[in-house]
Amino acid sequence: MHDIPPSVMPSAPSSDRSFRRILVALDASPHSRAALDLAVQLAADLEADLEGLFVKDENLIRAAQLPFAAEVRTHSVSPKALNDRRVQRRLRRQADQAEAVLQAATEQAPVSYDFRVVEGQVTRQLLRAAEEADLVALGKTSTQSSRRRLGTTSEALLAESSTPVLVLRRAPRRRPPPSAYYDGSETARQALRTAAGLADRGVPRTVFLPPGDETTTEQLRGEVHEVLGAPPARAQVHPLTPAEVDRLAALARRRGPGLFVMPGTGSPLVDASLQRFLYELDRPLLLVR
Amino acid sequence: MIDALPADALRTRFDPSDFGFETTDDLPAETEVVGQDRAVEALDFGMSIDAEGYNVFALGPPGTGRRPLVQHLLEEQAAGEATPPDLCYVNRFDDEREPRALRLPAGRGRELKEDVDALIEELQTALPGTFESEEYRSRREMIQEEVQEGQEAALDDLQARAREDGIALIRTPQGFVFTPLDDGEVVPPEEVESMPEEEREQVQQTIEAYQEELQDILQKMPEHQREARQRIEDLNEEMATLVVDDLIEDLRDAYADFDDVVAFLDSVRDDIIENVDVFVQAAQQGPSPGQQGPQQMMQQQGQQDGGQQGARAPDGAFWRRYRVNLLVDHEETDGAPVVYEDNPNYQTLVGQVEQIAQMGALVTDFNLIRPGALHEANGGYLIVEARQLLTQPYAWEGLKRALQNEEIQIESPGQALGLIRTLTLEPEAVPLDVKLVVVGERMLYYLLDALDPDMDRLFKVMADFDDQIDRDAAREDAYADLIATTVDDNDLRPFDRSGVARVFEHSLRLVGDTEKLSARVEEIRDLLTEADHWAQDDGADTVTGDHVQRAIDAQIRRAGRLRDRVQETIEREKIYIDTTGATVGQVNGLSYLEAGGFSFGRPHRITARVRLGEGEIVDIEREAALGGPLHSKGVLILSGFLEGRFAQRSPLSLSARLVFEQSYGGIDGDSASSAELYALLSALAEVPLKQNLAVTGSVNQRGMVQPIGGVNEKVEGFFDVCEERGLAGDQGVLIPAANTDNLMLRPDVVAAVEAGAFHIYPVETVDQGIELLTGMEAGTRDEQGAFPDGTINAQVEARLRTFADRRRRFARTDGDPQSATEEA
Question: Residue B3: is it exposed, middle or buried by C-beta count within 10 angstroms (0-12/13-18/19+)?
Answer without folding.
Answer: exposed
